[in-house]
Amino acid sequence: MIETLFALMVIGFVVGFVFSMPTAGPISILVVSNTLHDQRKRAMFIAIGGAIVDFIYIFIMVFGFTRLLTSHQWIISYILLIGAIFIFIQAVKLLRYHVKISNGNGSDSVVDTALIKKIRHHHGLYTGFFVNLLNPTIIFGWMISSLVILSFAASNGVNVGGMEYVFLNNVEEIKDQAVFKNSEPENLVEQMEKKKHEPQPHTFHQVINSLDYALSVAFGTVVWFYLLTGLLKRHKDKIPEQFFNYLVHGLAVFLFLISGYLLFDSLKLFHII
């Protein structure tokens, strides 16, 4: 049991850290843009808010949440639609930002009172929370990445408590859904089905294992963003201010594309297109 918990802790941290590195996701874009605006604390609140949702999604999808989404596909349609609108609004706000490098002490000329700073920082927590909450495609991203890494670890003799088959069953539930745009899930399922299935962990062990794994993934994402924001804050004064304006506005364009992608998926599930 202890061996399994330790293995899941290490694997979860690695998954959270590594799969948070791509900068094209909405959370990454908001974290980077806020850090460039000398608001590292708010950026970290955004990262923590997103990590909370990662933890919730990873934990509950082990217990049949994917079956709920599969049998009630209209839920995905509405969540995607709301998410597209929410991310579009964030993109508009980001596009209107103009980076102004301060003296490096973390001050913000617009936010000049401790109370308003506190509200802005906590607003970042809510922003990160709802950006991820309204982007259900991250469920499938974490599911596939978890299946790949846990299966790889198990095939190399690491005791992961049968959790790889828990994720396999969830992937099998939703592999035919519209959110999958390539054959990777099907190929993964075919490869796993060729292997001998081990029994899934007992319910109590499954709860403990999934809590351990989900917490470790969330912690890994927060650690990555902490290091990323620290790196950006430390070196941003060495780069021309205009470069950051171009970068932030470019990231805003990425958010518009993500919003359009979610809207397209939503309309497709509504059978409008």
Report on this model:
This protein is mainly α and 273 residues long. It has one domain (2-269). The chain has helices at 2-18, 26-36, 40-61, 65-71, 73-96, 114-133, 137-155, 163-174, 184-193, 203-235, 241-269. Helix 1 (2-18) packs across helix 7. It starts with a helix and ends with a helix. Residues 103-119 and 178-183 have low confidence and may be disordered. InterPro entries: LeuE-type.
Count every helix, treating DSSP H or I runs of 4 or more residues as helices: 11
What is the first-to-last residue Cα distance? Answer: 50 Å
Rg over C-alpha atoms, rounded to the nearest angstrom: 20 Å
Category from helices, strands and their pairing: mainly alpha
Oligomer: single chain
**Number of domain units:** 1
Shape: globular
Count the beta strands.
Answer: 0
Uncertain runs are: 103-119, 178-183
| Secondary-structure element order, N to C | HHHHHHHHHHH
For the sheet with most strands, the description reads:
none
Membrane topology: Multi-pass membrane protein
Protein name: LysE type translocator
Transmembrane segments: 6-32, 44-69, 75-95, 125-154, 213-232, 244-264
InterPro entries: LeuE-type (IPR001123)
Topology:
Layout: H1 2-18, H2 26-36, H3 40-61, H4 65-71, H5 73-96, H6 114-133, H7 137-155, H8 163-174, H9 184-193, H10 203-235, H11 241-269
Helix pairs in contact: 1-7, 1-10, 2-3, 2-10, 2-11, 3-6, 3-7, 3-10, 4-5, 4-8, 5-11, 7-8
Key words describing this protein structure:
single chain; 273 residues; mainly alpha; 11 helices; LysE type translocator
